[in-house]
Amino acid sequence: MLKLKPTLFLLAVLSLFSDRVSAAIEFRTLSVNEGLSQSTVLAIAQDGMGRIWMGTQDGLNCYDGYSFTVFRHVEGDAQSLGDNSVNALFADGGLLWIGTASGLSCYDAATQSFENFRLEGRNMQVADIAATAGGDLILATDLGIVLFDRASRELEIRTYLTGISVHAVCPSRDGFLVGTSNGVYTYSSTYGNAVRILPQMARYDIASIVADGDGYWVATHGNGLYRLDGALQVTARYDAASNPGLVSNYIRVLKTDSAGHLWIGTFDGLSIRDPRSGRFERYVHTSEPGSLSHNSIRSIFIDAQRGVWLGTYYGGVSYYHPLARRFGVLRHDPTRNSLGDNTVSCIVEDPESGSLWIGTNDDGVNLYDRRTGRFSEFNTASGSLLSNNVKCVLPDGRGRVWIGTHAGGLSSMDAATRRVRHYPVNASIPINNSCYALLDGGDGTLWVGTLNGLLSFDTAAGRFSRHLCADYEPRLGSLQITTLFRDSKNRVWIGTGAGLYLWQPDVRQVMTCELTPVKDETSPPAGISP
């Protein structure tokens, strides 16, 4: 999966996920300042490892969510990229097929090397790549349709459409729809023949074709957008004059997302068609933060995580994710009522009020009222805690909130009166007077994780004692306990500074979970049932 850079700020979910594209979407820009080799992005794809590949006019880029790795042609190195100008990308398992300004290249992730293919004595510019049912590749090129036979590793120009510039190939029910400089054709990879269809488009330059439900969308350079039904008949035409949300009739690229939105990249900006209303929304570059990086859109890709990548002409990549607007940021602001500290250690929902108890590193516990949006602070300054470094919070559902701190012991707050009592874990050594993890024992006791082992706390008597688990596994009596979790089978997982342990109450046994590589990621560790 693609990893995005972590943020230091608390993210709070403000609403549930929706399939609707917000009318106020914001983009993040990636360009040469972030390590992209060149700012015109002509092709985008995602490989099986979740990495995003971007083809530019000066090299192939691999983005892992943090940084770019750039691949270029190296003179004299047959295993380097065949050409620096990359027009098309097609991911196929562990292979990435690359259409360049002079031929076809293939990157093998296993060997981290390229294999290059060219027509003897001729350059061909590859604009699009698709796979046949048999696994061979169909290439849209300026020489016509070119077939790549994966068994023989050879390229062959098909006699039909020879000399016609082909821009797009789209799999269809009976083969492929082919967009050319002279309209739309159907193409059979089995028989190698092409047939012109839609004579009303014969004089138009077809830029892109995508399947959508039981029909297709066809984009033209200068004559807008067409809708075809399953019988390949035109059912509608959309132009900028009659559809204000359609930015331009000069369309370069189309893509549909899983919710049925049609993303339309044009010379003059982006349009998105809503499948329910049929209306178009337009997005153009402005001076405002979060706008498109450039109006001229050359490529669109929607990744496995539903993120949308827009490659532009000299504007790098604009990235959008439908969840981006579903999150708000709660951060410290000294000028108003806000979160007391940006370093957050834990978040727990109060079972009675629905408010959030937020443990911080330097401001104790903050109670966030989600109805009013206001914070209340409980810290050393208010006399509530003995330490502002909060490690864990546990509302017990019986009117008390238990708060574990570093070097401030365990505290109990009455949720109604806000009165607090303190219970030192180890008063003789201040740093050991720490509580890092809490779990309700369900019997009037708390499991307490400390810097010096696992303890049991009697909530009625207010006393600590050695925990039963330490009798079964003596190391739990001295290890640093960092986290406690009870699963759906009533087992308790104990995270320590030296590994993971599992308490199984039915058999009264503590198991050590060895940290070893697991080849089958769907299988649990040996000895532990799912």
Protein model, in words:
The protein has 530 residues and is an all-beta fold. Among the domains are: 103 residues; 181 residues, YVTN repeat-like/Quinoprotein amine dehydrogenase (Methylamine Dehydrogenase, Chain H). 1% of the residues lie in helices and 45% in strands. The chain contains 1 helix and 46 strands. A hairpin with a 2-residue loop joins strand 19 and strand 20. It starts with 9 loop residues before the first strand and ends in a 17-residue tail after the last strand. The N terminus is likely disordered.
Going by helix content, strand content and strand pairing, the class is mainly beta
Poorly predicted residue ranges:
1-20
In the CATH hierarchy, the third-tier topology of the domain at 333-513 is known as: Methylamine Dehydrogenase, Chain H
Helix content: under 10%
- Strand segment count: 46
How is the largest sheet built, in terms of strand order?
Answer: 2-29-28-27
Rg: 30 Å
CATH class of the domain at 333-513: Mainly Beta
Biggest sheet details: 4 strands, antiparallel
Keywords:
single chain, mainly beta, Methylamine Dehydrogenase, Chain H, 4-stranded antiparallel sheet, 46 strands, elongated, disordered N terminus
Short description:
With 530 residues, the chain is mostly beta strands.
Describe how the helices and strands are arranged.
Elements: E1 10-13, E2 28-30, E3 41-46, E4 52-56, E5 59-63, E6 68-71, E7 86-92, E8 95-100, E9 104-108, E10 113-117, E11 126-131, E12 137-141, E13 144-149, E14 154-157, E15 166-172, E16 175-180, E17 183-187, E18 194-197, E19 206-212, E20 215-220, E21 225-228, E22 234-238, E23 251-256, E24 262-266, E25 269-273, E26 280-283, E27 297-302, E28 308-312, E29 317-320, E30 327-330, E31 344-349, E32 356-360, E33 365-369, E34 374-378, E35 390-395, E36 400-405, E37 410-414, E38 420-423, E39 437-440, E40 445-450, E41 453-458, E42 463-466, H1 469-472, E43 481-486, E44 492-496, E45 499-504, E46 509-513
Antiparallel strand pairs: 1-30, 2-29, 3-4, 4-5, 5-6, 7-8, 8-9, 9-10, 11-12, 12-13, 13-14, 15-16, 16-17, 17-18, 19-20, 20-21, 21-22, 23-24, 24-25, 25-26, 27-28, 28-29, 31-32, 32-33, 33-34, 35-36, 36-37, 37-38, 39-40, 40-41, 41-42, 43-44, 44-45, 45-46
